[in-house]
């Protein structure tokens, strides 16, 4: 099995109704756990499954390229550079009729 290296995969982790949710916007995959540690461990497993299944289907490189990843060589080994994501909190005023 070949090894895939992706540097600095962006993950947002938030708590929703007592559950920790880990979401990766560039791959649009998510998972959850009852603790922060469990959500992180589940996310790592989810990425491994995602990479493994897309590799089996022969669509991994296509999906990574469509998601904005760039393939680079480091020390004669292919690596995938993660797309730059700008995260900002944008105030939104939404009128709600009571």
How does this model look, in words?
- With 98 residues, the chain is α+β, with helices and mostly antiparallel strands.
- It has one domain.
- Helices cover 30% and strands 29% of the residues.
- The chain is built from two helices and six strands.
- It has helices spanning 36-57, 60-66, and strands at 6-7, 12-16, 19-24, 29-33, 70-74, 77-81.
- The strands form two sheets. The chain has a three-stranded mixed β-sheet with strand order 1-6-5, with no helix packed on it. A three-stranded antiparallel β-sheet has the order 2-3-4, covered by helices on one side.
- The radius of gyration is 17 Å and the shape is globular.
- The mean pLDDT is 87.
Mean pLDDT: 87
Distance between the termini: 58 Å
Beta-strand percent range: 25-35%
> Any low-confidence stretches, pLDDT <50, length ≥5?
none
Range of helix content: 25-40%
How many domains make up the 3D coordinates? Answer: 1
Number of helices: 2
Assign the structural class, choosing from mainly alpha, mainly beta, alpha/beta, alpha+beta, or little secondary structure.
alpha+beta
Oligomeric description of these chains: single chain
Largest sheet: 3 strands, mixed
- Strand order within the widest sheet? 1-6-5
Query: Rounded to an integer, what's the Rg over CA atoms?
Result: 17 Å
Give a count of the beta strands, DSSP E runs of length 2 or more. Answer: 6
What sequence of helices (H) and strands (E) makes up the elements? Answer: EEEEHHEE
Shape: globular
């Amino acid at each position: 099995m070949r090894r895939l290296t992706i540097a600095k995969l962006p993950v947002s982790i938030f708590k929703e109704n007592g559950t920790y949710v880990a979401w990766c916007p560039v791959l649009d995959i998510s998972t959850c756990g009852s603790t922060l540690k469990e959500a992180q461990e589940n996310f790592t497993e989810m990425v491994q499954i995602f990479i493994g299944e897309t590799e089996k289907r022969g669509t991994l490189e296509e999906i990574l390229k469509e998601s904005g990843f760039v393939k680079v060589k480091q020390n004669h080994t292919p690596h995938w550079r993660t797309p730059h994501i700008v995260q900002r909190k944008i105030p939104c005023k939404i009128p709600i009729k009571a």
